[in-house]
Write a structure and sequence with these properties.
The protein is of the alpha/beta class. The chain contains 15 helices and 21 strands. It has three domains: 149 residues, Alpha-D-Glucose-1,6-Bisphosphate, subunit A, domain 3 (Alpha-D-Glucose-1,6-Bisphosphate, Chain A, domain 3, 3-Layer(aba) Sandwich); 222 residues, Alpha-D-Glucose-1,6-Bisphosphate, Chain A, domain 3; 87 residues, TATA-Binding Protein (2-Layer Sandwich). The protein is globular and about 70 Å long.
């Protein structure tokens, strides 16, 4: 019988009490333990032997799963640093590098609905485990050979990962600039692991801010803890009441970000990534002794506005499959100024090879403070400099028949797409067609749901609407 445990781009996720059960969690954690002890890298750690961090978010039973897993890992001779509270994924990534552990296990399903939980495994560099590593972990799931256990279990050490992480973030964001500009902020952690992080750091820095949903709710207010426009209505209300200049939000494990401007408009993560790339190139050479050199990495589904900004500043662009682990790999190679995905993932040079929604929010606040202009105006000025780009994303349900037909169509060569000339085809991750007017469309089949992820981009909002209609007809005609 095949195992229900499969590690995808961000670990294993499943529905609580269906596949995400105590028995399956034990299997997954034991597989990680056997991988860590079998590879047994000869690397220094504070504990003197194999060690892992165990963290968790605010989901139902996450802290119980974490405590059980720490004891299980310790029985395998792995020293465990168990977080004393819910902790953001990027804070775990920072702690891995600081404590020199063999990685971390994090109980989180990120932005997924409340009935999901998950196990995310990160490697000693602080990055999400690459496919080659997760395949080795999965191989242990089918090994029935009893694991040799040490006579004496290792220790489980409870740790607070917040202070050191916030200290690191404070060194990468100009909080003094935000305070001196008199910027008023509002923050929504969406009941997730970001509680006390952005709001705590702003309070320490004396920056005026209000927060909403800053307590644990395992149901996340009845909607997924995803920081997109439809879930940030109460953040908008708080902004209006406090006359805030900017609204910030993070998802369930605070690795994704959401931004609302002073008029209550949700700003596309694609546009935020492009603005921040432009801002970092302009600002960071003057604050870093050696200057910030390097390129930008983005997933195949991310806006080409980033390509235009990179061309304007004469830096290289690296396009990757969807999955932040590919971007993280290039951050470690020190190739990048910024890496980002359209699904609101970002990291920057000299930071962890992992998405960090907290950093993204605070850098956006710094950018608004530094430039002294609203985000909407910044976007229009950027459009004036490099051209306009309007991206969109949809999940399109497919029947088995339509899916099968699309799989066959995706293998074909295209010089024409519904009457538009195709200038390039990219099959890095799905089927991406670049059209002669600079617009593009990407079709990616979901590995877990009967849907097609549809991404389109055009130079106008009307053009985006028309292209999306054309793409849907391509799927169903």
């Amino acid at each position: 019988m095949s195992s229900p445990i499969k590690f995808g781009t961000s670990g294993w996720r499943a529905v609580i009490a269906e596949d995400f059960t105590l028995a399956n969690v034990k299997k997954a954690v034991e597989a990680v333990a056997r991988h860590v002890t079998s590879t047994n890298p000869a690397r220094p750690s504070r504990s003197g032997g194999p060690s892992l961090i165990v963290g968790y978010d605010t989901r139902f039973l996450s802290e119980k799963f974490a405590a059980m897993s720490a004891e299980l890992l310790a029985s395998h001779g792995i020293h465990c640093y168990l977080s004393q509270q819910a902790v953001p994924t990027p804070a775990i990534a920072c702690a891995i590098r600081r404590l020199k552990t063999d990685g971390a296990i994090n109980f989180t399903a990120s932005h997924n609905p409340s009935h999901y939980n998950g196990v995310k495994f990160s490697t000693p560099d602080g990055a999400p485990a690459m496919t080659g590593v997760t395949q080795k972990v999965e191989a242990w799931l089918s090994d029935d050979t009893p694991a040799p256990l040490p006579e004496k279990p290792a220790a489980v050490e409870t740790v607070d990962l917040q202070p050191a992480y916030l200290e690191e973030i404070a060194q990468k964001v100009n909080l003094d600039l935000i305070r001196s500009a008199g910027l008023r902020l509002a923050y929504d952690p969406l009941y997730g692991a970001g509680i006390g992080y952005i709001d705590g750091l702003l309070a320490q820095a004396g920056i005026e801010a209000v927060s909403v949903h800053n307590w644990r709710d395992v149901l996340f207010g009845g909607h997924p803890p995803e920081p997109d426009g439809e879930h940030l209505g109460e953040l908008r209300q708080a902004m209006q009441q406090s006359r805030a200049h900017l609204g910030l939000a993070t998802d369930g494990d605070a690795d994704r970000f959401g931004i609302v401007d002073e008029n209550g408009n949700f700003i596309s993560p694609n546009h935020i990534l492009a603005l921040l790339l432009d801002y970092l190139i302009e600002s960071r050479p003057w604050t870093a002794k050696e200057g910030w050199t390097g390129g930008v990495a983005k997933s195949v589904a991310t806006t080409h506005l980033i390509d235009a900004v990179a061309k304007f500043h004469r830096i290289p662009v690296y396009e990757t499959p969807v999955g932040f682990k590919y971007i993280g790999e290039m951050i470690q190679q020190d190739k990048l100024i910024l890496g980002g995905e359209e699904s609101a993932g970002l990291t920057i040079r000299h930071h962890v090879p992992e998405k960090d929604g907290i950093l993204a929010c605070l850098l956006t606040a710094e950018m608004v403070a530094s430039r002294g202009m609203p985000l909407a105006r910044q976007i229009q000025e950027l459009f004036g400099k490099v051209g306009s780009y309007y991206p969109g994303r949809w999940s399109v349900p497919l029947t088995a028949t339509v899916k099968k037909r699309f799989v066959e169509r995706s293998k074909q060569e295209y010089s024409d797409f519904q009457g538009r000339r195709v200038v390039k085809t990219v099959r890095m991750d799905g089927l991406k067609l670049l059209l002669d007017d600079g617009s593009w469309v990407l079709f990616r089949l979901s590995g877990t749901e009967p849907v097609c992820r549809l991404y389109c981009e055009a130079s106008t909002e009307k053009g985006l609407e028309e292209l999306a209609g054309t793409a849907r007809r391509f799927l169903f005609d």
